[in-house]
Automatic annotation (TrEMBL):
Residues annotated as catalytic: D142
EC number(s) on file: 4.6.1.17
Reactions catalysed, as given in the entry: (8S)-3',8-cyclo-7,8-dihydroguanosine 5'-triphosphate = cyclic pyranopterin phosphate + diphosphate
Domain of life: Archaea
Organism: Natrinema limicola JCM 13563
Record-given protein name: Probable cyclic pyranopterin monophosphate synthase
Positions annotated to bind substrate: M91, C92, H93, M127, E128
Gene3D superfamilies, A to Z: Molybdopterin cofactor biosynthesis C (MoaC) domain
Domain Molybdopterin cofactor biosynthesis C (MoaC): 31-170
């Protein structure tokens, strides 16, 4: 419920059914009207990680993956996903992206990706940050899948995990 930052009920529990902003009273799906909301500066940071074999991490560090520069390609994929979130998630508004930062951290058996998205507009950008993370990690997987497969063509050591929103900020006008 990204468009209605104040939609939680007073108890702090999950939203009541009649507080759902993407459905009408009749239960039909709708896009939330944000037309009357003032523009404000917004920022969201999301993160996630991909678990890989240590040998794959070393190949990425040494830029020895046959498909090319894994992290550069994943960075482009993440940014593209941020810019196209409104096309892939129903009821998301198209928002003006003012900045995207990507940061990869390599450990022995995993890569963490953090994506920070900034906008000035009427609605938040956490869905864009999440799309950037998931697509960026999917690109990593695609780039290394040949070396991650086992003898039967499966991926027992590979997994995308712990995708989450770390922060969401809104500077009120």
């Amino acid at each position: 419920m990204r468009e209605n930052d104040d939609a939680a009920d007073s108890s702090g529990d999950d939203h009541a059914a009649d507080d759902l902003t993407h459905t009408t009273d009749e239960g039909d799906v709708q896009m939330v009207d944000v037309g009357d909301k003032p523009d404000s500066e917004r920022r969201a940071v999301a993160a996630g990680e991909i678990r890989l074999q240590p040998s794959t991490i070393e190949a990425i560090r040494a830029d020895q993956v046959g498909k090319g520069d894994v992290l550069a390609t994943a960075r482009v994929g993440a940014i593209q996903a941020v810019k196209h979130t409104w096309e892939t998630i129903p009821m998301c508004h198209q928002i003006p992206i003012t900045n995207v930062d990507t940061d990869f951290s390599l450990a022995e058996d995993r890569i963490e990706l953090r994506v920070a998205v900034e906008t000035t507009g009427k609605t938040g950008c956490e869905m864009e940050a999440l799309e950037g993370v998931t697509t960026g990690l999917n690109v990593v997987w695609d780039m290394v899948k040949a070396v991650e497969k086992d003898d039967s063509g499966q991926y027992p050591d590979t997994g995308i995990e712990n995708v989450r929103v770390l922060t969401k900020e809104k500077q009120r006008p």
